[in-house]
Each structure stands twice: as structure tokens, then as C-alpha cells.
Amino acid sequence: MNDRTLILIKPDAVRRGLIGAILSRFEGKGLKIVKLKMLELSEKDAKRFYDVHVGKPFFKDLVSFITSGPIVAALIEGENAIKIVREMIGPTNPKEAPKGTIRGDFAKSITENAIHASDSFESFLKEYEVIFGSNKN
Ligand code: CMP
Questions:
Q1: pLDDT, tens digit, 9 for 90 and up, residues 58-102
Q2: Atom 11 in ligand 1: residue holding the nearest Cα
Q3: Domain annotation covers residue 66
Q4: pLDDT tens-place string over residues 106-128
């Protein structure tokens, strides 16, 4: 279980046709995509997904952006998946993200930053439940 993580390809990246380019980076690194789903998050689920950020100044914009269009969620498996995937996506703010990282190459701004990945096993469990949990096909 510790070797699984969840990523979301965010609405900006889906709109720009980057689903394949982003997923292929994980496969290229030897990680396995073991579940895949395209969906539109409801406001309620977006708030649950990002509940650690409730009350922060960017929370409203974050929820409104992540619900603005389809996203792609992937369950990714491999040794040290959480750490490796976080390294591959780069820092939250694209201004700080080196070229070669997913955000460094594709993110537009701190809000439209192309991708999310779980930052810990605890976050992964919560996020997985929101996206792939019971009654969510
Ligand atoms: P993500 O990795 O999806 O997790 C929380 C998101 O909040 C983050 O990416 C950013 O898109 C968004 N966000 C917007 N403003 C900020 C900020 N000032 N600091 C951190 N995250 C922010």
C-alpha cells in the first residue's frame, strides 16, 4: 500500500491535451498505472479532497478551478511511488519548478499547475477514497 500514490491531471492540462504526455512520463519511469478515471469533481468532493486547505486564502479559487472541467485521476504503483512521483511533478509553484519536471514543463500558474499528487500515505488514503471510494465507478 505504501508504494501506491494518486495523481490528478488538472483541468488546465486536460484542456491543453496533455493527458498522454503526462501519463507517459510515469510509465517511462517504470511506474505502473493500475487504475485510471476521467471525471468532473463535484464541489462537495473537491472540498473533501482538499480539506487540509480549508480556510487558506486560495481555497475558494482552488475549488473553483478543480471543478472547472474534466480531470484524470490515476492510481500509480511502484517502489517509493509517493516520493518519486512528487519529485517528478516538481514544486507547487511553477516559477520554482525546474525544466524536466511536469510542472516545470506544463504548469501555467500556482493555481493552474497541471497536476496534483499525494504528499503522504495519509493524504493518499483520503484522496483515494474521494476519487475511487464506494459508489464511485
Ligand atoms: P496541489 O498540489 O493540487 O495542492 C493544493 C493546491 O492549492 C496546489 O496544488 C495549488 O494549485 C493550489 N494553490 C493555490 N495557491 C496556493 C498557494 N499560495 N500555496 C499553495 N498552494 C496553492
A1: 999 999 999 999 999 999 999 999 999 999 999 999 999 999 999
A2: 111
A3: yes
A4: 999 999 999 999 999 999 999 99
As beta bridge partners, residue 73 has: 8, 37
Separation between Cα atoms, residue 127 and residue 9, nearest integer Å: 14
Q: What is the number of structural domains in the chain?
A: 1
Query: Is residue 84 a contact partner of residue 31, using CB atoms and an 8 Å limit?
Result: yes
> What number of residues does the chain have?
137
Tell me whether residue 116 is one of the annotated catalytic residues: yes
The whole domain housing 76 covers 2-132
Q: Which residues contact 57 (CB under 8 A, 6 or more apart)?
A: none
Atom of ligand 1 lying closest to residue 112 CA: 11
C-alpha cell of residue 52: 487540509
Q: How far is the CA of 58 from the centre of ligand 1 (A)?
A: 7
Q: Considering the domain boundaries, does residue 137 fall inside one?
A: no
CATH number at residue 64: 3.30.70.141
